[in-house]
Each structure stands twice: as C-alpha cells, then as structure tokens.
Design goal:
It comes from Flavisolibacter ginsenosidimutans. With 626 residues, the chain is mainly alpha-helical. It is 60% helix and 6% strand.
Length: 626
C-alpha cells in the first residue's frame, strides 16, 4: 500500500518544474511576483510545492541565505473564524518567531498583529460577533475576537446585555472600535497595514519573503476568497513572492460565487461580462500561471514502477531512486523500467518485482488514459488493486489472473456504467458473456459502428475501444470471481466517491444551485460539455443517484432536461434508467412546461413519454389534448 500524502520525494520527475519556479523567484528583477501552480485534483501540485519549500529553506531554518520561506496550508485553517486573518497572522508570527530577525522588528510585528485583530473584527461584521462575544463573556470562555472581548469586559454585564440586545446594538459595537487615532476605518487600516509590512521587511533586512500557499482548492468558496483577498494585500510589496497551488477551475468557481447575486436573471451579455470579471480577477492576482502537464504513458509507467520499487525494496531503493534521477537528466521521454533497475537488485528482489513491472508495462497506457495521468488517482487505483489481489489470495481463488483484475478495474474507475453492464451480462452467462466476445472482435476489426443498435454509444468511445483491444482479452474467461472481489463497488457507492475528482464534485454542487434557467444553460455549455467521457460518466452518475433518492426534486429533473436538450452525451440514457427506478407520481406536475419546452428543443426527447407510467399525473399532463 502507498500513503496518499504530498511528499518532497520526486517519483514523478517533477523536480524540473520546481526548479523552474525557484529560478523565477530568485530573479530579483521580477519581484514582487505571484506564481500559480495550476493542475487538477491529485496532479502533484502539493509535491512540487514541498520540493520548492525544502530547496529554498535548505538544511537550516526557514531563513536561508536571506530568504524567509513560509509554508501555509489553507485547508488546515478551514475552521477558523477568518481565513484572511489566519494567513496574515501566520506570516507575521513567522517573522516574530525567527530569532535572527525578531529583535529588530518587535515593534512592527506587535503593531501588525493588532491590525490583523481589527481586520478580523471588521471582516466578520458586527452582527456576527455580538452574540458570540457576549456569550463568551458570561460563560467565562474565550471570545472569537480576544481584542474585542477585552473591550467588552470594561462594561457592566447589565449594561452590556441591554446595549447588545437593543435596536442600537450595532452602533454600540462601532463605538468600541476607537483607537488613539479615532475610529478604525478598513480602507485606512489596509493602507497602514501595507506600509507597516513594508517597514517590517526593510527592518528585518531579509532579501526576500517567499510564501507558499497549498491546498487552497480544498477550502470552501468563502475561505478561498478570503485567502485571495489576503494575498492581494501583499501584491506589489517589494521583496515578496507568493506561490499558490490550486485547481484553477475551483478557484474560478469560488470567484463566480462571489458575484452570484449579481448574475441571477442576467442576460447572456451580462454573464459574458461576469466571466471576464472572473478572468481579470484571477489574472491580476496570479501574474505567472504555470500549468502542470498531464503525465504521459511513459511517465505513468515509470511512476508505477518506482511506486512498486518503494514498496518492495529496502536497501536497494535509494540506489534505484538515484539511478532514476540520472536517467531523467539524460532521457526525458523514455520509460525508466525493469531493465534500468535490475543491476541494482538481488535475484530475490528481481523475482519479487518482475511480475508487477510486467503487468505495469502491459497496462500502463490504458491506466494512463483511464485515470487521466493523475498521480493521486493512480496511487489510489494501485492501493485498491493491491487490496483486491490480497483478498483473492486469502480467499484461495484458483487460476486468478492479476492482469484481468487490473483491466477490469480500469473500466470500473473510468466507465462505471459499462462495468455494471458487463457485470449483468456475465451474471446470467456463468461468468462468460457472449457480449464481451462480440465487442472485442468488433474492436479488433474496427467494426464498432455495426453494433450501434445493440449496444450503448459509450462502447464506441475511443478510450473504451482501446480498452477492448488491450491485452488480456476477456473472452473465454470466467469473470465471476473478479466481480465477486469488486462487489464493494457494485453494491456501494463509497469506493467510487473517493475517486471522483474535486472539480467534478464542485461542478455537481454548483449545478444543484443553478439559480436560473439561463445560468444553467450557460454552465452546461461552458463546463459540462467540455468534460471528457469519463468525467461526464461520473457527473451523470452523481445526478442519477441523487434523483433516485429524491424523485420529487424539481431542480434535478430540470438539470437532466437541460442536459438532454443540449445533447450532453449519455444524459438521455441515464435519465431513462432513472425513470425505470422511480415512482412516476413523485415527478412534480409543475414540470409539465419544462418537459414540453425540452421536447420542442430536442424532438428526440419525445421518446421519454413512452418510458412513463400511463397512470401517472405527469404522463397524463404531457399527453393531454390541447
């Protein structure tokens, strides 16, 4: 098994990307600068950021050769009252805690931390903090805002209760925000914060400050925006560099949510303008975007080879890793495989690795394509594969072939509907379905078009056809044991949900809260239709399960109707499957107009009426005489 954590150990050959970003921030002529390390969920962003952090801080503390480097994990502060304040406070305290510079800047850090406390108060809003602060005062606990709590304690309990519960409670809290300079104003506060921060940088005499922000895309939309607003405070502050790792689609969606209230009921021109606002916001914040490339087939094969080496080797592993580094310098395109490592292995180690690496070589291309070259997905795939292989051994299954298991799992994780369809076929044919033989033969002869009527269109997808052609062939193999091992996926959604990319989960949630018909149509055009077949299958599967659970949810039906109207691949077949499993009387009668409009837009949807129970209200509504 392999741990699913970020690491500075480079098994992906990503050190070259880290070194490129380091070269950028070492160029003092480019400072101040903000760099975005962009990639999908699990693409290796965190590992690159760890490599950058380790190299910049060197063997000593976080101040190395005049560079102070700070690593901030946004997700760890998800539960804090104000993520913006948490980031600012972390940066300032790193200055305060560093013994080499703390004595020079004590006055500035104290002043800056006080400013952060005021920002926290202003950022939360008075109505949000009145009750928590008062409650903390009376129960003896700590307030969310220690500084404000101190001000409240100067007032008698009876007077405090009267003022907070009165109509003028908010003005009362405003009156507490007095400094020697007068009332605290947020604009003035931010300007003074920037000035004080510059002074702290100068007084500390550091050459540069590098702040690495990780896991931003794991945060809620609100927290993402708070962190982005904090970063904006430092833009154009001399000697600073920010390196931000994130999935840009999730960040864009968070920015979009910020403008959501302005977009409800907006025209398409207004929506286009909002998209430009989102793009401008992100481009101003991230001056240098760096998009991580997807792993190639050869890189996937190399990565899996090194993962197996790490798991199965002990004393030889460091030699293998060093050999890989040397190989990658000389050859950026080839596979680092068994022939490259066997000279470092004992005979026993060679034997232990041989079968695993042979399997990797035969299936790496379809694993690479099926899992989109995503390192985290590959690691999770291999962990599940290992568990199932062990289960087969413990269950003493005879003639069990691990390459057959691996091939079936690729279908399972990329086209779950087809995997379940294959399960149904084999369950009625004692494990050897005629259908898979027919499909494999058609794929080999490039005759898939001849099977149009008999099989769903998904079997024609290029990726599925390549899967059908790949060895080992499944014709003539009893598949019952393999599906018995995979029954956790067949009878539970838990194993599949952990492999759904974060941006698909985010897209699913945003579609559920579409707001208006025009927004839903735009979102399907701009976000759903651009997804690949595997991700579309996952998204449709989420909606399928949700609608089966709540067939009376009008919005879910509207989402399907809009996707079918815009001819989202397999949306029609998925909706038909739903209709077979739900009570049609649960479909809200109010959806009649939506059905009529969808059928008018796409006549193919007329066929939906034949799937409905003739006794149901929705069927009668759609077939009533005009």
């Amino acid at each position: 098994m392999w741990a699913d954590n970020e690491t500075s150990e480079d098994l992906l050959g990503f050190k070259v990307h880290a070194e490129l970003i380091i070269e950028v921030i070492k160029d003092e002529g480019l400072l101040p600068v903000s760099v975005g390390v962009f990639g999908d969920w699990g693409s290796g962003k965190s590992s690159i950021l760890k490599i950058i952090y380790e190299q910049l801080k060197g063997d000593g503390d976080e101040l190395n050769e005049g560079t102070l480097v700070i690593y901030f994990n946004g997700w760890m502060f998800e539960g804090y009252d104000d993520a913006k304040a948490a980031l600012l406070e972390t940066i300032i305290k790193k200055f305060e805690e560093n013994k080499k510079i703390s004595t020079q800047i004590k006055e500035q850090t104290t002043k800056l931390l006080k400013s952060v406390n005021w920002m926290r108060v202003l950022g939360l809003g008075f109505k949000k903090i009145a009750i928590p602060a008062a409650s903390a005062y009376f129960t003896g606990g700590l307030s969310l805002i220690p500084y404000l709590s101190g001000e409240l304690q100067k007032i008698s309990p009876k007077e405090l209760v009267d003022k907070l519960q009165g109509d003028d409670g908010e003005n009362f809290l405003h009156s507490l925000l007095k400094d020697k300079k007068g009332e605290v104003d947020e604009t003035t506060l931010i300007r003074e914060f920037r000035d004080d921060f510059k002074k702290m940088i100068d007084q500390s005499k550091i050459k540069k400050l590098v702040v690495i922000i990780d896991d931003l895309d794991r945060c809620t939309h609100e927290r993402i925006i708070e962190n982005l607003e904090a970063i904006k405070l430092f833009l154009n502050v001399e000697k600073t560099a920010f390196i931000i790792g994130a999935d840009p689609r999730i960040v864009r969606h968070a920015i979009e949510q910020r403008y959501r209230t302005e977009r409800i009921g907006a025209t398409s021109d207004a929506n286009d303008k909002n998209q430009r606002i989102i793009t401008d916001y992100l481009e101003k914040l991230i001056q240098i975007p760096y998009n991580l490339p997807r792993l190639s087939d050869h890189e996937v094969e190399t990565y899996m080879t090194l993962l197996f080496c790490k798991r199965q080797l002990t004393s030889s592993y460091p030699k293998v890793l060093e050999s890989f580094r040397e190989f990658r310098i000389k050859n950026r395109y080839g596979v680092f495989g068994f022939a490259d490592i066997e000279t470092h292995l004992s005979e026993q180690e060679k034997e232990a690795l041989r079968s695993s690496i042979t399997l990797i070589a035969s299936l790496s291309s379809i694993i690479a394509e099926g899992l989109k070259g995503n390192p985290r997905q590959i690691k999770r795939f291999l962990n599940t594969f290992t568990l199932r292989h062990k289960l087969a051994s413990i269950a003493t299954i005879q003639d069990f072939k691990i390459d057959v298991l691996a091939k079936l799992m690729v279908l399972e994780y990329t086209y779950e509907d087809l995997f379940k369809e294959l399960y149904t076929w084999q369950s009625v044919k004692e494990g050897e379905p005629d259908e898979i033989k027919e499909l494999e033969e058609a794929a080999e002869k490039s005759q898939m078009a001849s099977l149009d009527i008999k099989y769903s269109s998904q079997w024609k997808d290029e990726q599925v056809v390549r899967w059908l052609k790949a060895e080992p062939k499944l014709s003539g193999i009893d598949l019952r044991d393999y599906f018995w091992i995979a029954r956790d996926k067949l009878f539970s959604s838990l194993s599949g949900s952990t492999l759904i990319p974060a941006h698909i989960k985010s897209l699913f949630k945003s579609l559920l809260n579409f707001g208006s018909a025009s927004l839903l149509k735009d979102k399907i055009t701009n976000e759903v239709l651009i997804e690949n077949g595997a991700n579309l299958s996952l998204l449709l599967s989420l909606f399928e399960k949700e609608l089966i659970k709540t067939p009376n949810n009008s919005d879910l039906h509207k989402i399907f109707l809009q996707m079918m109207s815009q001819r989202v691949p397999n949306s029609l077949s998925t909706y038909k499957k739903v209709l077979k499993r739900i009570d049609h009387d649960a479909i809200p009668f109010s959806l009649r107009a939506d059905f009529v409009f969808a059928i008018k837009e796409n006549p193919e949807l007329e066929d939906l009426k034949t799937q409905m129970d003739p006794k149901s209200q929705i069927y009668k509504a759609l077939n009533q005489k005009k």
